[in-house]
Amino acid sequence: MARIVNFAVVFDNGVRKRHYHETEKDKVICFTVQLEIKVKGEWKVAVRYDCSHGFSHMDKYDIKGNQTKKMLNLNFESALTYGDWDINKNWLKYKEEFLKGVGNE
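User: That's the sequence. What structure does it adopt?
Assistant: Structure tokens below.
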């Protein structure tokens, strides 16, 4: 049976991180860690680390909805840990880039 971890961390007014992962036998089988910014009453994803396409990757968005995808050469456990750390460390920078519509590589 899978174990599910699901929580949110508020960084600032209108800025939060959502963390979700599932493990089976201590192995991560599914994960999403994302930074969300509230815009006009609606939560928008600024940065997301996940494995939705069967591989670990990072999606980065701007306020206009433009997206870039970066493959990560990491297993799910490492990508989850890295994504959580990166968002915790860089949330303010990602927020500013999202709101300015820049920062997509």
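The mean pLDDT is 94.
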